[in-house]
Write a structure and sequence with these properties.
The structure is a single chain. This protein is an all-alpha fold and 128 residues long. Helix 2 packs antiparallel against helix 4 and helix 4 packs antiparallel against helix 5. It starts with a helix and ends with a helix.
Length: 128
């Protein structure tokens, strides 16, 4: 938000730079949130596996049963999904500051988007 006041008095070129910086800060905050989510799922998953069940997670009908973990493989699959989302956010953050010098750079970037899309697609298919 510190850049928001500068945005209105900046020139067109400076506005573009400020917009990229604001989006990068927002994406960085989302990345931090996803990392905290990984740590929370990992901690609660280990607690549920080795210490005691989390009764609220099993009784709750409106939740997506994120905290119900029955085995180490179940914990690994839930963590892998969140790690995949962190990789997507990091890819997006890096793509904000990319500059394309040739058509081959654009092809590589397109292949990267395709790989991320396939990873998300197959990640969602594995849970069904």
């Amino acid at each position: 938000l510190s850049h928001a006041s500068d945005y209105f008095v900046a020139s067109i070129a400076d506005r573009k730079v400020l917009k990229i910086e604001m989006v990068a800060h927002t994406v960085g905050a989302i990345d931090g949130f996803l990392l905290a989510t990984i740590l929370l799922i990992f901690a609660l998953g280990l607690y549920e596996l080795f210490i005691s069940d989390i009764d609220e997670a099993k009784k709750s009908g409106q939740s997506a049963k994120v905290l119900v973990i029955n085995s180490l493989d179940d914990l690994k699959s839930k963590l892998a999904k969140v790690i995949l989302m962190i990789l997507v956010v990091t890819f997006f953050e890096v793509s904000l500051s990319m500059s394309f010098t040739s058509a081959l750079d654009l092809v590589y970037f397109s292949l990267g988007i395709l790989m991320v899309s396939l990873a998300l697609y197959f990640g969602s298919k594995s849970s069904h």
